[in-house]
Design goal:
Double Stranded RNA Binding Domain; 9 strands; alpha+beta; 143 residues
Length: 143
C-alpha cells in the first residue's frame, strides 16, 4: 500500500532530520554519518531527558521547543503556531493550499496587518490585541 502522508515520525538521533520510515533513518545514518552511533557524536546532553546533540545551539533549540513548549514558527495566514518549521510548512501545504489565489483579505483596524482568512484575523485580535469581538475590514486584494 502506498502512503501519501507527509508525516515524518522518525528522527535521526544525530542530526534530528525526520523520516517517514524507520528504515530510512538507518540508511541515512549509515550513508550520511558513516555509521556513527548516537552517543559517539553527541557531547551536549539534555539535563531533562536522555537526548544529546552535536552542538550547543541544537541543545538550546531542543530545550526551548520540547521542554519549554515555545512555538516560534507562526503561520502568517492564520497565526497558528508550531514548534518545528517542518510542521508549519506541512500546515501551510495542507491547510492553505492555493491561498495566493484568494481575492479578498481581512485587515486589522488596530495595527493594519492583513489576513487571508477571517479565522486568522480573529486569532490575531484575540491573542495580540485581546479583543475577540472586534470588527474586521474586508478588502479586495490588489494581486
Amino acid at each position: 500500500m502506498i502512503s501519501h502522508s507527509t508525516e515524518k515520525p522518525y528522527a535521526c538521533p544525530i542530526c534530528q532530520k525526520r523520516f517517514k520510515k524507520k528504515h530510512d533513518v538507518t540508511t541515512h545514518c549509515r550513508v550520511v554519518h558513516q555509521g556513527k552511533k548516537y552517543a559517539q557524536n553527541t557531547k551536549y546532553k539534555c539535563n531533562i531527558c536522555p537526548k544529546a546533540f552535536t552542538t550547543s545551539s541544537k541543545l538550546n533549540d531542543h530545550t526551548t521547543y520540547v521542554h519549554e513548549g515555545q512555538k516560534s514558527h507562526i503561520c502568517e495566514i492564520c497565526s497558528a503556531s508550531y514548534i518545528w518549521k517542518t510542521s508549519l510548512d506541512q500546515h501551510i501545504r495542507m491547510t492553505h493550499d492555493g491561498i495566493r489565489h484568494y481575492k479578498k483579505y481581512f485587515q486589522c483596524e488596530v495595527c493594519g496587518k492583513d489576513f487571508k482568512s477571517r479565522q486568522g484575523y480573529s486569532h490575531h485580535m484575540k491573542y495580540v490585541h485581546g479583543d475577540a469581538c472586534a470588527m474586521f475590514v474586508e478588502r479586495k486584494s490588489i494581486f
